[in-house]
Amino acid sequence: MKVKCVICDQIESIPDDSPEAKKLRNRPIHTYMCNSCNQRIEQRTNERIATGNFRLYRTIKTEDEW
Ligand SMILES: [Zn+2]
Asked: What is the mean pLDDT of the chain?
């Protein structure tokens, strides 16, 4: 099946019987992320954890409250 990355809008094709495809079919809202975006986010998350500054969700919430 064809999937679109929510971050960079890249269209990718994944095997119909892959766990990813099954997950996406079960949910109407597509939250697919391509490999490069996945890795980028993972890397960023790891960097934050490494610096002891892991406040991703709190930071977003704070900005919304402004
Ligand atoms: Zn992407």
From this structure: 80
